[in-house]
Each structure stands twice: as C-alpha cells, then as structure tokens.
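From the thread on structure requests for the teaching lab: each student submitted one protein with a one-line request. Submission from student K.M.:

"Model aromatase from Danio rerio, tokens only."
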Amino acid sequence: MLLYGISPFVLSVNHVFALIFLACLLTVVKLLIVRRKGVKTMERFPGPPAHWLFGHVKEFRQDGHDLEKIVKWMELYQFAFPLWFGPSLAVLNIHHPSYVKTILTTTEPKDDYAYKFFIPWLGDGLLVSTGQKWFRHRRLLTPGFHYDVLKPYVKLISDSTKVMLDKWEVHSRSEESFELFKHVSLMTLDSIMKCAFSCNSNCQTDSGTNPYIQAVFDLCHLVNLRFRVFPYHSKAIFHLSPHGYRFRKAASIAHNHTAEVIRKRKEVLKMEEEQGIVKNRRYLDFLDILLSARDEHQQGLSDEDIRAEVDTFMFEGHDTTASGISWIFYNLACNPEHQEKCRQEIQQALDGKATLEWEDLNKIPYTTMCIKESLRLHPPVPGISRKLTKPLTFFDGRTVPEGCTIGVSIYGIHMNSTVWENPYKFDPLRFLPENVANRSPHAFVPFSAGPRNCIGQNFAMNEMKVAVALTLKRYYLIKDPDHTPKMIPQVVLRSLNGIHIKIKPVEND
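Reply posted by the TA:
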C-alpha cells in the first residue's frame, strides 16, 4: 500500500538515514565540546603544533624514534606540553621532577581513558583500580612483599637464571650474537611462577614459543595500538576489527594460564590443610597471601579480584622485569669497563660460592648503581598517566582543572638535561649517595613514586641483582656493532629490532 505515493520501505530507509545523520551530528558536537574544553585546559601550556583531526598521533610511528621526539619537544617546553590523541583527547605530558612531584605525591587514580583498555585483560586489579578498592587491595597485598617473604625467592631466582645461562653455552661457543629479550622473558616468567605461585613451569626448557609470553607481547602491542588509533577508542569498533579479535584471543590465552595457576595452587593448599601441614611450609608465596588475605571485617578477595591481581602481577612481575634485565645486559655490554668493575665486586661478594644469597644483595653497591643507571636510560615502563579528581597547581603557579589527564614521561624525566648532566652517557656514579642526596627524589622514578608506586619494586630489584651477578660471574657480555636496538614504547620498553649481544665464558682461576 502506498501512502501519498511513497513506499513504506522508502520511509523506513529515510528514517534510518536520518537517525544515522543525527547520531553522527551529536557525536561531532560532543567531540567539539570536549575539544574546546581541552583547548581551554591546555591554553597555559604551549606545545608542538597538532593536526585538527589526528592530533600528534601521526608523529608517533613506532619506528624506533618516538622517544627521541619526546626529548626534542622537552627541550622546547621546559616543564610540560600537551599531546593530542585524536581531535578531542588532550594529555598534559610532564617531564620535570618539580612537576612530577606534584602529581605523584597524591593518590590520584590512573587515567581511566587509557588504562581502561587494560581492563579486559588485567581486570580491575591494583594497576587500574581506584578509590577504596585500590586502597583495600594495596593494604591486603602489601604483606606479600615483606622481606621475610622475598628472602627465599633469591634461591628460586638463582635457579631460573642458571637454567638460562646453561642455554647460553651454545652462544658462548659460537661467538655469534643472539637476541636477549626472548631468553630473559622466559627466565623471568619461570622465576615469577616459582616465587609467586610455587609452580615449576619448565617454560625455559620446553621447545617452541611459550603461548603466554606471546600473548602478553600481543596484548601490549594491541593496547598501545588501540590508544594511538582514535576509532579504536570506541569499544564497538575495536571489538569488530581484526585487532579486536586478536586481542580477545590473546586475552583468553592469558586468562586460561592464570586460571590454571590459581586452580593448581588451590588444590595444593586444600591438600596441605587436610593433612595439617600448612604451618610447616617454608614460606607463603604471593598467591597464598592473596587466597588467605582478610580485611578488618574478615572479608577476603573475591575469585574475580584474585584473578585480576594474579593477571596483573604475572604481567608486571615478568614482562617489565624482563625489559629491565635485557637493557641492563645491553648497557653493560656497551660499557666493558663498568662491566668489569661489577664482575670484580660480584666475585668478591660471592667469595667462592656458586650463587648469590639474600645477605649478598647489599654487598654489590657498584653493580646496583649500574642497574639503576640502566633503569634511568631504559626505564621498563617509559610513561604512566593520572586522571585528576580535583584541580592541581604546579610550583610555577599554573593550574589544571579536575578531569585533566596528566601523562608522566618517565623516560623524559630521566633524560632531562636540566637535571642530568650529559644524560645519554652511561655513568653509574650518578647514584653515589652524595649525588643522590643533592638531586630531587623525583628525578629518578623507574618504579613511579608516592602512594601508587610499584608494589613489587623490591622483588624486581632483587631479581635484577641476582640475574646480573650470576651472568657476569659466568660470561663476558660483548656489544654487537651490527645490531643497535631501536627503542619502542609499547606499555613496556622494547626494541623494534631486538636486543642483541655476544658472550664468551669467564675463565675462572
């Protein structure tokens, strides 16, 4: 039937197009309002010119030069400058200790815009949670990082490191270069499984690519990609895209891995409880503490919360540490004179022993300074961000309003030439006590700082010390001039073309 000569089908099509047009119009209006607000927020902070639609996204090509761009802009804008991701998302990028202190001494939450992309993978764990939930979880998890808990881990980390070094024998005989990160990543996963979850994974000796490590690599890449590609900020568009499919597949692998770890640990604890041997265990691991944690109301963590914290610690406890250790090895290979000083110090501390013990960790101060200097040059997490819940005023009087996103460029702080003389030079003496005392504590923040600092930083430092000590005891690390790594920030600091070195055995007298 026709109505005034017009088909109902034509009417319905016109209605659909009208609704689509209206939705697009509303979206554009919303973007314009948000953009106007962002421009007003950033008007007191000059910065590099931005494209009206893409912002600065096209400036970051993931080609190994992105961090150089940040340093170049730092030199033009002393304390901070805005970065635009798409037409409406503005982030105030800060890179000076005085500015960083202002934000990191608060309990302001992580940026809910960027960090929300982690939630389908890591859940609402300590990395992304806010408010009372974050405070409660932080308090419940803190006992898991007491030195009494960390102490037995030294032997377990040593065992994992030795497995890696045994595998390196073939490279020491061939004198050919090899890529570090994949070896170190397996070692740190092996360590975290043993230490935090009392699980012997055998991941270092299994043949083939470890699916969990590959999944974490893919997830880091896809989270980074989603943030940089403005249409992917839409949950629906990302979900329907090929990248969204890859993300869900990788997240499923990671979640299955975590679920299996929790399942096995629950079975062991149940068996121990039934046999009355809980109190005879040598130590409680991280998962034990998660499963037994109770607040003042005797309420524990839900199964969902436990999985989120395990996912978070599994990622942060192996991937970021793998980045740190790999870059430390590379920097020591590039600086053989400092490497040799470390080796002599380590040999003296070991005094003929085959491995490092808890008491030896404080006997290698020069090695510790070299580790810190490498973390300055190559911070495992090159940047973090916060979302303001109230206005914030910096030391120079400039103020940003509630709702503003603050990006803390950890790499930028560490390479700030107004703070660090000759910042590109590897100089561990920067961390002599007298030099540290004369420098802002917020000039060196590889583990962040303040109330929301990295809860596992002591675990990570201990693992780095053990790995470096046992490696230098056994091998000389040699730079490969044909493979210069290109830094690429993808949640953690990686190399676009890998991190390659050569090694040769240390001849023991």
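TA comment: The two ends are 101 Å apart (CA to CA). The first helix runs from residue 8 to 41.
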